[in-house]
Amino acid sequence: MPSLALDWLLDGPYGLLVALVVIGGGTALNYLRTRREKMLSFRVRFNSRLGFDPPDAGNVVRLIGPDHTEIPDPGMVVARIKNVGRSSITEQDYVHRLGLTFPGTDRRLVTVDVTEARPPDLQDLLTGEGFEVHDNRIVLPPVHLNPGSEFKLVALLEHTSGTGKPAVQTNGILRNGRIFLDSDGRRLRRSTLIGGGLTTLLAGALVAVLLVGLPPDPRDDCAAGELTVTGSSAFADAVQSLAEQYMAKCRASRITVDASGSIEGLNELNDASAEDGPRRLTLADGRFDGGGGFPNVEIAGTLAVVPFSFVVHPALPVTDLPRAELARVFRGDVANWNQVTLADGTPGPDVAVRVVGRDTRSGSRSVIQKLLLGGGNPAPITVNSCAAANTETAVDAAIVCEVGSTGAVLDAVARYEGAIGYVDMPNAADAGAAVKQITVDGLGATLDDIDEGYPVWTVEYLYSYGPLAKTADLTRSFAGFLVDADQADEIQALGYPPCIQGGSVPQGLCSKGN
Fold it and tell me: How many Cβ atoms sit within 10 Å of the Cβ of residue 193?
């Protein structure tokens, strides 16, 4: 498959950049529900007639099909198909096979090809046995797609007459999953071709064209070099996924995500050398202004709303706590759950309280300290390990341990009776039945409940060493990639309401800078 012509078609400013896949309802709860489903997205990257400008250019340049005849009224569709969920889609998950249909009285497929598959072996599977091409319909084989696996279909059609955007329909049903097709993307001006010196093989059709009206994107989407991203462990998985996508597109880049905690990441960024600092970015749960102990650090962008959920051991019969009682627990004021008044006014069970907190390197800890404890200190550590009994202090004191990552919190809460901790809601949802999420005064960590007063949420900030404009090329490029609207559907699919949603609730929350 040729790359130059496709890159211009797909990435030029007049290419069809379809609006983001929207997962219904606008609430974090909906995001998380879809996140646990098998999710396949169709993004139509280009969908237009291929005309000639000036009109008499057709007398000089013709589009010739594989049967050596001219293709009348040609059109092209380029669609990206990607597993945007966290679960693999197996061959058995296809209730009805996946495909695309191009409605129209006379529309007919001339050639179809699969390109830019990730992993590359996927291309051979898709173009082998089971790939069907009908007059106006493509049917794909039931191929296994791991999370993040993707490919592009390039279809050349004839008899694409009329004005506006030709129709494209998706076919297929996934068991316990969803298939999304953006059918409301922005319309293109009619793409134009003029005769010239570029000859390229496109999906099996010989095309002699020079693309005009599609100049290269003035923004450099790729940069070479090395970059280290540190900071929040809560958001690390999301950025790791996006870093892999960037590196797959920009082969000369190397991005390492090393997230151990927001505060530690900010300290490392602030204390970096003048040579190393410009090759670093840091993620942090919440806003830390340059004067607050990090004079060399500046905000490079906002990425998403991060709601925090309180999780307990699944056997603990607690589902809802008043905010004041929850604060008592995390201050270490209670040793047994029977000292806690539940939301219904009854005492909790006769089970020792085991508080699983984050260490001082964590931005999550700062969020709890600020928004739940009113700036006060959380309970001091009483045991060296979350598995230990409380033998180092009075037996009537709370058992309090600290861990260094979101995953370690979930593991400890899932293991130990009476345990309670806090993690970002997407990671809590990923843990499934291993832990139990509880509500606070009847409110959960959703966008709707945040609007109603749910107290514990923040914004994921991206920080650079000094002004972003003065950092290394790869640092600027990847930062731009993260905050670009084109990545919002990826962030959303990972369970975080993205900041880049013009005029919607997440953008409003992000501007508050919690």
Answer: 22
CA nearest neighbour of 105 among 164, 161, 168, 165: 161
In total, the chain counts a number of residues equal to 514
Tell me which amino acid residue 19 is. Answer: A
Give me the DSSP letters along 84-133. -SSS-B-GGGEEEEEEEE---SS-EEEEEEEEEEESTHHHHHHHSTT-EE
Q: CA nearest 188: which of 154, 155, 213, 216?
A: 213
Domain boundaries, the chain: 4-211, 221-514
* Phi and psi angles of residue 371, each rounded to the nearest 5 degrees, phi first: -95, -25
**Region at 32 (left for phi over 0; alpha for psi -120 to 50; beta for the rest):** alpha
SS3 70: strand
Give start and end residues of each alpha helix (H) in 353-394.
363-371
* Rg from Cα positions in the chain: 27
Which amino acid, one-letter code, is at 140? L
d(CA 503, CA 227): 32
Quick one: tokens of 156? Answer: 């050349």
Topology (CATH) of 221-514: D-Maltodextrin-Binding Protein; domain 2 (3.40.190)
Q: Helices 262-270 & 363-371, crossing angle to 10 degrees?
A: 120
- Answer whether 100's CB lies under 8 Å from 47's CB: no
CA–CA separation, 79 vs 98, rounded Å? 13
Which residue's structure tokens are 């004079």? 295
- From first to last of its 514 residues, what are the pLDDT tens digits of the chain? 333 332 323 333 332 222 222 223 333 334 333 344 677 776 665 666 665 444 434 333 445 555 556 677 777 778 888 887 777 888 888 877 888 887 766 777 877 888 878 787 777 777 766 778 777 888 888 888 887 788 888 888 877 665 455 677 777 777 777 776 544 333 222 233 322 222 222 333 322 222 222 233 333 478 999 999 999 887 888 898 889 889 988 889 999 998 878 888 999 999 999 999 999 999 998 888 655 678 999 999 899 999 999 999 999 999 999 999 999 999 999 999 999 999 999 999 999 999 999 988 888 898 999 999 998 999 999 888 898 876 555 457 789 999 988 889 999 999 999 999 999 998 899 899 999 999 999 999 988 899 899 999 999 999 999 999 999 999 999 999 998 877 787 788 778 888 876 445 566 788 776 6
> At residue 314, what are phi and psi to the nearest 5 degrees?
-60, -20
Token pair recorded at residue 96: 């009805």
Please give the full DSSP string across 215-252, using - where no structure is assigned: PPPSS-----EEEEEEE-SSSHHHHHHHHHHHHHH-TT
CA distances (Å), origin 338, targets 164, 224, 370, 417, 472: 67, 58, 27, 14, 56
How does strand 354-358 pair with strand 419-424? Answer: parallel
Q: DSSP alpha helices (H): ranges in 21-109? A: 28-35
